[in-house]
Amino acid sequence: MAPRGREGRRQLTAPAARARLRLPLLLGCGVALGVLSAQGADLPGALRALPDLGTPWLVLAFVAGRGARDVRRAGLTAIAAVEAGLVTYYVWQATLGAGGSMLSDYGAPVWLVGGALLGGILGGAGWLGEHSESSTTRVLAWGLLAGVPIAEIPHARASGVDYRDLVVAGLVATSLVLVAWATARGRVSPSVLVPVATGLGLLGYGVHEALLAFR
Q1: Residue spans per domain, the chain
Q2: Which residues have C-beta within 8 Å of that of residue 192, sequence separation ≥ 6?
Q3: What residues form the membrane-spanning segments (predicted)?
């Protein structure tokens, strides 16, 4: 029997209300990440490395894609969240004189385009990891996410960032948390996911280094 009266209307409109709030919430998370990244030099301890890390941005993109209606909307929502953060980052630096970071070495246009490209990919991966019936697709989607912090570990170890060991430990812990999340929500076996994530992470690191060589 269909729900009736005021209670029925609440049941029918609750999902729509959550959907309306979802995009502003994701955009707000992007803006908050942009502000924190712009203030990286003033953050305590290992958090000073935040401006040099891509993991928070791509995790945000993956999360943004998981709840979308389809893979196209997943990519667009993820792009919107990441771009909101990057624009906030540059506006914050320009208007308030926040300290520079690795991002500014390449120029805003390159990072805005790169953020849109990678954000769209991770957003699509988030949707596929949640909705795909193919176990191979889910493994690749979640492996791409868990591989992001793995890709950043060699760079963090070789860099001169403050609290380097803590940053590396944090990236390792983040990858393990993402593997646990995939096991719990993505119907993925960790014995399969870990090698895939490691391989994709090392591949991503190699591509990044190759791009730097031709910068």
Answers
A1: 15-213
A2: 139
A3: 50-67, 74-92, 108-128, 166-184, 196-214
Q: Which residues of 44-69 are buried (b: 16+ CB within 10 A; e: fewer)?
A: eebbbbbbbbbbbbbbbbbbbbbbbe
CA atoms of 215 and 204, how far apart (whole Å): 16
What's the token pair of residue 186?
A: 């993505």
**Other C-beta atoms within 10 Å of 30: how many?**
27
Could you say which DSSP state residue 78 is in? H
Work out the percent of the chain whose per-residue pLDDT is above 70. 82
Give the Cα separation of 155 and 91 in Å (integer): 27
Question: Per-residue confidence at 1, pLDDT binned at 50, 70, 90?
Answer: very low
Angle at 145 (CA atoms; ends 139, 147), nearest 5 degrees: 90
> CA angle, 40 as apex, 37 and 41 as ends, to 5°?
155
